Amino acid sequence: MPNPSRNVLLIDSTGRGHAIADLFQRSDPSVQVFYGPGNPSVADERICTVPDISLSDPESAVRFCQARAIDFVFVSHIDALSTGYVDFLKTNGIPTIGPDRAAARLEASKAFTKSLLQRYNVKTARFAVFDRPEPAKCYIRGLDYDVVVKADGLCEGNGAYVCSDQASALQAVDSIMLARAHKDAGNRIVVEERLFGVEISISALFDGKEFLMFPAALDYKRSDDGNKGVNCDGMGSLSPHPLADKTLYREIQTEVLEPLRAAILGEGLKYTGFIYIGAMLCDDGIKVIEINVRLGDSEAEAVLPKVQSNFVRLCEGVLLGTLSSMSLETDDKCYCNVVAAQGPTLRLDEHGREIRYPGWPHGDFEVGFPISGLEAVNCRNSRLFFANVRRDAEDTLVTAGGRVLHVTGIGDNYAQAVHHAYANIEKIRFKGMSYRSDIGLIYGSVDAMRQRREISSLPWTWQMPRGALS
Ligand code: AMP
């Protein structure tokens, strides 16, 4: 019997949102996705942008649901989740997937999450929490290991200061608490042990009782080539993670997901939807670094294209609490996502004086530049996901923010996926466009990789200069 067609409202507006909308329509032949506030540059006859829906006004979503026959709402933007969007929709009787406001603290407060992880024996770095700078500095002076200093609240991915010495850690405390670099998000800080190893991005869908694990990814969080620059939302990712084999997935299941599930249930958190767990594969096991209450972005653009299961059915499993009886089908391809961001630009003001914009994420950046070359992108070996792309008055696609778009290359191996990502992103142009040229290379972690598994057995033929395959 054919499945009945569903109307879904997706609350998001990012590249991740585009990837989720794309998964809905790609995996279900009849679903109609309403995407609010969405992104008007996303052109697909079964993805309809609803700009009247606001991330800060759940009433706008309720009105839309009452006017249209919406079967369920999927909320995946932290601005909405952290302010109780899901609570409001559910109170209005609308079937909704997403953590409620209390559960969203898993992302909105690092201190809350660290304490929860500790109480439920989820392995994580040693830490302490401070509300004032002096005790934090005193604590740092007494340590004989490097630390990461983190603002407690939401900081758009740049609130963690990974420090290589005591001086930079003390400086980080001052930046967050005295210079108030992250405003109120830095009223409280977490000082935690710096971990060394291989990072891994774990994604799973949760129905309030059980997790369904998605393919893991390797994320590139630093802004610049060579894994230099600042931590930002992410400049690219690979999926599956190069170390993802059955043994590692089993370890994630028993060492991370099961205790985390016990923590969520034990605290009575009302949580459904995607969860992202950033973790480090250390010599003495896997340790959790952070939790996001939605998919990671730029991981979503590399992980979700692998999924072959009908996502509407999986969401219905979440709503019914029957995810444990379902499985996830994925393809056997490799995916490499490279982010095209707004880099530095130079402009003359009305007096002919130069104004220099450092570009995202280093400072101010310009927007509104026409984007060309999109039609040349080969959709057989890559996917395009729009983050900050808009239409101007002439209906031209223009830039509208820091991370503009994502190009995800597809391949039978990592080398091909990386090659296809770069071969296609190089066709795209906008003023000041910048992207990392080294997504796919491994930094500082080869030794740790070698310890976990014989390096020669890894499919790392992609550690070759770009262009070698063309
Ligand atoms: P967070 O803001 O907690 O997501 O951290 C951002 C990034 O900082 C992570 O993806 C890691 O690259 C790095 N990081 C955070 N905590 C640690 C840690 N304890 N040890 C090493 N690196 C870390």
TrEMBL record:
Signal peptide bounds: none
Pathway(s) the chain acts in: Purine metabolism; IMP biosynthesis via de novo pathway; N(1)-(5-phospho-D-ribosyl)glycinamide from 5-phospho-alpha-D-ribose 1-diphosphate: step 2/2
Alphabetical list of SMART domains matching this protein: GARS_A, GARS_C
Cofactors (names): Mn(2+)
GO molecular function terms noted in the UniProt entry: ATP binding; metal ion binding; phosphoribosylamine-glycine ligase activity
InterPro entries xrefs: ATP-grasp (IPR011761), ATP_grasp_subdomain_1 (IPR013815), PreATP-grasp_dom_sf (IPR016185), PRibGlycinamid_synth_ATP-grasp (IPR020561), PRibGlycinamide_synth (IPR000115), PRibGlycinamide_synth_C-dom (IPR020560), PRibGlycinamide_synth_C_sf (IPR037123), PRibGlycinamide_synth_N (IPR020562)
Record keyword Protease present: no
Enzyme Commission no: 6.3.4.13
Annotated keywords: ATP-binding, Ligase, Nucleotide-binding, Purine biosynthesis
Domain ATP-grasp: start-end pairs: 114-320
Database matches in Pfam families: GARS_A (PF01071), GARS_C (PF02843), GARS_N (PF02844)
BP GO terms, sorted: 'de novo' IMP biosynthetic process; purine nucleobase biosynthetic process
The protein's enzyme class: ligase
Family membership: Belongs to the GARS family.
NCBIfam families in the cross-refs: purD
Name the record gives this protein: phosphoribosylamine--glycine ligase
UniProt organism field: Mesorhizobium kowhaii
